[in-house]
Amino acid sequence: MLKIGIVGGTGYTGVELLRLLAGHPQAELRAITSRADAGTPVSQMFPSLRGYVDLKFVHPDEAHLDQCDVVFFATPNGIAMQQTRALLDAGVRVIDLAADFRIKDIAEWEKWYGMTHACPDLVAEAVYGLPEVNREKIRQARLVANPGCYPTAVQLGFIPLLEAGLVEAGSLIADAKSGVSGAGRKAEIPTLFSEAADSFKAYGVAGHRHLPEIRQGLANVFGKPVGLTFVPHLTPMIRGIHATLYGRVRKDADLQALFEQRYANETFVDVLPAGSMPETRSVRGSNLCRIAVHRPQGGDTVVVLSVIDNLVKGAAGQAVQNMNIMFGLPETTGLNVIPLLP
Ligand SMILES: NC(=O)C1=CN([C@@H]2O[C@H](COP(=O)(O)OP(=O)(O)OC[C@H]3O[C@@H](n4cnc5c(N)ncnc54)[C@H](OP(=O)(O)O)[C@@H]3O)[C@@H](O)[C@H]2O)C=CC1
Ligand SMILES: CC(=O)N[C@@H](CCC(=O)OP(=O)(O)O)C(=O)O
């Protein structure tokens, strides 16, 4: 059994980790932290976990995280980088759901995240945890940087086209929409029901912190820098990301076959039949990314539709997938969740 610690158990990604790990046959939850709610039973705060998680939240200082096999950080940006070195030194493997270890260029990270990085050497060591690209490196990793939610949906949609050199890499467009749980559980005016419901808006058009992360990932698979316009939107649903991706096709090819072949062995990427238009609810609660590829009117624009649950494949589910790979478990362990309907 893997002894597991979660730092930040009261946020949406933390409780989603709890939901998935409570049903994971090889996971033994040891410690779940919260500073504000230390001492509160998990099932009191999250009644859906009653009977599944028999723990109380503990303060991080009393969590004995160094006795775990793996610690997940489901904390705001800038927390994991302060604690990871001590855990690694104690032989604990770390999976960070925040962005502390995602961007290799430290100056770029500091510019977008507005803080000084505490451990650039560990950024160099960290493996970017997108299994569909980095599976072999993840197996050996002590430290995994779990990808962001938008970056997961966007990268999985563009990767086949870039790897095959079939799209003009200088003018990619990602038009992405997220549910409000993407903003976390903390109270903020833009995600109040009366602000977000029955409305729809773009944000971060001038620049969003996921832009450098997506560019870095796409450049790695393409072998050269890419040009990307990324526009996120807030949409009045709770879970889900829908990314509509556009590119200019460079040469004729069977794009449907390309996508089907690229993801043929990927359990968590489902390439839909030609003509499909995936809905976010078709992946709700599951670790799936469902993708459809279109070439409207046979023209030179390729349109890829990519949907994920931001809290699962976009966060906690992908983190559990990475844990399974790191510890040599079947990748689907604990993740065979059928999407919720309706
Ligand atoms: N929501 C989403 O869809 C996605 C989120 N992420 C990332 O995952 C991380 C967590 O997100 P989310 O669950 O939404 O966040 P929340 O803001 O909802 O939760 C944050 C959690 O971290 C704890 N925490 C806050 N500050 C500290 C600290 N200094 N030390 C220890 N614990 C702390 C909080 O508990 P307490 O203050 O009581 O200690 C709380 O449990 C973020 O970095 C986010 O960017 C990634 C992908 C998708
Ligand atoms: C709807 C919404 O606000 N989404 C968040 C992104 C999700 C997130 O938490 O960012 P990471 O994936 O980097 O952790 C935002 O745009 O800031």
| Helix/strand class | alpha/beta
- Radius of gyration, in Å, reads 19 Å
Q: Estimate the strand proportion.
A: 15-25%
What do the pLDDT scores average to?
97
Structure description:
The protein contains 11 helices and 13 strands. By secondary structure, it is α/β, with parallel strands linked by helices. The chain has 2 domains: 2-125, NAD(P)-binding Rossmann-like Domain (Rossmann fold), CATH 3.40.50; 149-310, Dihydrodipicolinate Reductase, domain 2 (2-Layer Sandwich), CATH 3.30.360. The strands form 2 sheets. The protein has a 7-stranded mixed β-sheet with strand order 8-9-7-10-13-12-11. Helix 1 (12-22) links the parallel strand 1 (2-7) and strand 2. Helix 1 packs across helix 11 and helix 6 runs parallel beside helix 11 (312-326). It is globular, with a radius of gyration of 19 Å.
What is the structure about, briefly put?
By secondary structure, the chain is an alpha/beta fold. It contains eleven helices and 13 strands.
Name its key features.
342 residues; alpha/beta; Dihydrodipicolinate Reductase, domain 2; 7-stranded mixed sheet; 6-stranded parallel sheet; 11 helices; 30% helix; globular; binds NADPH dihydro-nicotinamide-adenine-dinucleotide phosphate; binds N-acetyl-L-glutamyl 5-phosphate
